[in-house]
Amino acid sequence: MEAYLAHMLIIIGIYAVITMGQNIILGYTGLFGIAQAAFYGIGAYTSAILALKLGLPFWVGLPAGALAAGLFGWLLGLATMRLGGDYFCIATLGFVVIVQQVLLNWEALTRGAFGLPDIPRPSLWGFSFDTRLSYCLLVWVLVAVLGLLMRNVADSRLGRAFMAIRDNETAALGMGINTFLVKVIAVSLGAVYAGVGGVLYAHYTTYIDPSSFSVMETIIVLCMAVLGGMGSISGSILGAAALIFAPELLRLVGVTGSLSIYRQLLYGIILVAAILTRPRGIMGMAEFRFQALFKGGPWIREI
Amino acid sequence: MKKVLTLLLAGALVMGFAAAASADIKVGCALPMTGGIAFIGEAMMQGIEVALDEVNGAGGINGEKIVLQVEDTKSDPKEANNAVAKLLEVDKIKIIYGPARSGSVLASKPLVAKAGAVLLTSVSTHPDVPGADKGVFRTCPSDAAQGVVGAKLAKDLGLKKMGSLFENSDYGKGLSDVFVAEAKKLGIEVVIEERFASQDQDFRTQLTKIKGKKVDGLYVVATSETPNIYKQAGLLKLGATIIGAEGTKDPKLLERGGEFMEGTYSTSPPFWDESPDPGTQKFLKAFKAKYPNEAPRMFAAQGYDGMIALAEAMKRKGTDPLQIREGLLTLKEFPAATGSITMLPNGDVVKPFAVFQVEGGKYVFKKFMK
Amino acid sequence: MSEFLQQLVNGITVGSIYALIALGYTMVYGILMFINFAHGEIYMAGAFIGWYLMTQLGLPFLIATPLTVIAVALLGVVIEKIAYRPLRHASRLGPLITAIGVSIFLQNLAAAIFGTDPRPFPLPSFLERNIYEVGGVILDSLQIWIFFLSILIMIGLDLYVNHTRMGKAMRATKINKQVAPLMGINLDTVISLVFAIGSGIAALGGIMVGLYYNSVSPTMGFMPGLVAFTAAVLGGIGNIRGAMIGGMLIGILENLGAGYISSGFKQGIAFFVLIALLLFRQEGIMGKVEREKV
Questions:
Q1: C125: Cβ contacts below 8 Å, ≥ 6 apart
Q2: Is residue A280 in some structural domain?
Q3: CA of B214, closest CA in chain C: separation in Å?
Q4: CB B99 within 8 A of CB B85
Q5: Taking CB atoms and an 8 Å limit, are B107 and A117 in contact across chains?
Q6: Helix (H, G, I), strand (E, B), or coil: what is residue C195?
Q7: What is the complex's ipTM, to 2 decimals?
């Protein structure tokens, strides 16, 4: 049972990281960019290919995957940033389709539809992260690190620039912010997060193929961000948890087998109901105060 | 009086003990119940149910009945991974049947190996799937064999210049590649290879290109897309002989394709209504009794085969996963619905393929080929 | 040369279908600034309801089709009322998520009721396919029907929006949602009507596609919906003629691209073109530029 819970937590952790990236782009900066699935895929494939073709360890693959994703985020940002809000959205969606198609067709590099099996688990000084529990720890250490990073970004000048652009771009421009550059940075940073998620995913499932990096996937990430509360780090985690747990809970409660269609039906209903009752997401824009556990005081901190 | 009571008590205890010991054997089924290939999962379940009726009806395995725990793989390798993980770790079931998609089996292989479990698939045809040492077995023949048969058939039919149209997936590409390699070896020119996305409906673009190359034969790897492919090929006056892989042989496709399916060939594991194989007939009889209003699809027959193979392995060696692995390896000429099962040491099976041609709206068996 | 023309014909047919779906997207977006992700499923619903009426209840095409259109128009209105209206004033993303939820719901509802297998959708006799061969290019009558139908609908819609009172109300709402009610326009009615019309048109598209490919399946709406939305954006979102042009263009480009570059990239081409075009002309082909004032 613990192994199964660990499995759930690993998946939640991976999605939490990707969702945080989504939140940087959308929640902090107000950019309707939904290409996370593409960056996630780029991160995963980069690390997997480095491991399988060049024998490079996970610890090289991780920064490599993150940087590769970030690079593509940068390029996508440069290419599409001039587009107005909703056009930008559709362009990022298109990017997901294009990346998936490339992964599927560039067989010499990615083995196309056959995918990449046998991706090794990371190991550190002889210790191999073979068990679920150990990998879970690895994932959540990274979640914590990246969460802290996100918090620091939020509090920094860059973060304030992000939010200024979200709140009123023309005014931000008037304040002397190089909005173009800042927006591209936002997309790139969000992509880095997704890349990390991708690397973690590849080395966990030990098998990846292009079908995982689809439009549906990127939409799920968007839902996690919105459901959890945009612009909230704890919201990213909660949103991921909610959307991962929901189908699993139903699966556990016995809605399995050929009743799976009913399970997915419920999933759709949950999405609609959740937004109707709490449109700003579970956390809205607030953050869970971890200090409340130690020092007391209010549990939720409004930003 | 005391003696009688003691005897009765002893008798009750023995009976109670026997009842407690008679637990069910749980088999975890990780099958696509939703998503793109849900129709495969549904058909397989039909076959599995028929198999269970037979096995459990005959008393099960040493008095124990086989019970299913079904998990949905949603036609996706990642979800399949989740489903298998859940079966192995939450439900503690180490006998896994499925998944269907080759990619899904490949994704779950490490889990099975690590857990010392046994996994049997009856429809995954990718050459890399079996691995007896990792506990992964299958009861359907490899694409590596089917592609070769397709090429040999083309040669037999005297085709000289061919094209290939396949589903852009692990299955489609794998099979097409094997076909092309073998065709070239046999001296057939393969001038064009086109692909389509799974569940696409419009193939005119690809077919127009293929027509432009003036081929006299076309190898098609598809499943539910088949009727549209054949119809559009007909409408565009492609004028080529069509050889399809086993996904193109399914009674439901005939319904949709109508006259455009006439004259086309398909290769598939030997399963058809008029088959003289007693294993096939036994299955057909049982299937028609249970589902009188349905035409038995090959996936149902394959679903059945996998389950009876598992049951037989359990009968021979035991119900522990490692015992089942051993048991599966002992299967030689074991009668089944899609041709007898002979397990190779690496967990794969070899079967002759049957060649069909559509005549008068029906698949007519032509011959066996290896 | 005939291969090129053939690909063109293929492209125009597919393009007409995209255009029909795109019309619904563009109307809703034009007025509500909202991407109705469930629109692809509305199209699918049209196909299924039409299929059901014609094949299961045996109703003739000329009766079943209008019934379907009305039913689906109503479906669109109901969905708007339940899932989108309450969120009209909330964040921009709320309705988007509910739209996704509705999309998932409808897809699985169809699967639950009709099963996941594609179902055959045979042609009614008066639409029987006649094949014409013109200079090596093959056309079938159904392709011609589809093309003319979409042109007709587009012209009809264009006339409606530009020359009727209700159409005027729609345009007014599009220009300024806040002021429109002050002019005596009932926002709710206009919006409901927009959804009804968009959905009805999509339903028609669904039936045509079901007949053309002789197949209906619960997942048939997802990808076309996405591509149609791209077409709408390409043509300049909110613009009816743009939706038509965008749809045709994407259909043609998809086929030519797949025909001459690589069929593996068929799905990506539409988006590639879109990004390329938008880089040069932000508003799409026929859109109007709106400058935001501080």
A1: none
A2: no
A3: 12
A4: no
A5: yes
A6: helix
A7: 0.75
CATH, domain range C2-280: 1.10.3470
- Determine, yes or no, domain membership for A147: yes
Q: Contacts of residue B103 in chain A, CB cutoff 8 Å? A: 113-115, 207, 209, 211
**Of C6, C116, C120, which is closest to B38 when you measure between CB atoms?**
C116
Bridge-based pairing of strands C131-134 and B189-196 is unpaired
- From CA B207, how far away is CA B218, in angstroms rounded? 10
Tell me the pLDDT of chain C (294 aa) as tens digits.
778 888 888 889 989 999 999 998 888 888 777 888 899 999 999 999 999 998 888 888 888 999 999 999 999 999 999 888 888 776 667 787 788 889 888 988 998 888 777 888 888 777 777 788 887 788 888 888 889 988 999 899 888 888 888 888 888 877 777 777 777 778 888 889 999 999 999 999 999 888 888 889 888 888 888 888 888 888 887 788 888 998 998 888 888 888 777 776 777 777 777 777 777 766 666 666 554 444
Is residue A212 less than 8 Å (CB to CB) from chain B? yes
Enclosing domain of residue A11: 2-213
CB atoms within 10 A of CB C276: 11
Neighbors of chain C with 3 or more C-beta pairs under 8 Å: A, B
Say whether A90 and C274 touch across the interface (CB within 8 A). Answer: yes
Helical segments of chain C, H only: 2-32, 39-51, 61-79, 93-114, 141-163, 165-175, 187-213, 222-234, 240-260, 266-280
Kindly report the pTM of this predicted structure: 0.80
Nearest one of C263, C287, C256, C45 to C174, comparing CA atoms = C287
Domain boundaries, chain C: 2-280
Q: Do C90 and A279 touch (CB under 8 A)?
A: yes
**CATH fold of the domain at B144-268:** Rossmann fold (3.40.50)
- What does the domain layout of chain B look like in residue ranges? 23-141+276-352, 144-268
Domain count, chain A: 1
Chains that touch B (3 or more CB pairs under 8 A): A, C
| CATH of span B23-141+276-352 | 3.40.50.2300
Ramachandran angles phi, psi of A147, nearest 5°: -65, -45
Q: Are B146 and B175 in contact (CB under 8 A)?
A: yes
Closest to C213 (Cα-Cα) out of C52, C55, C17: C17
Element (H, E) at B97: strand B95-97
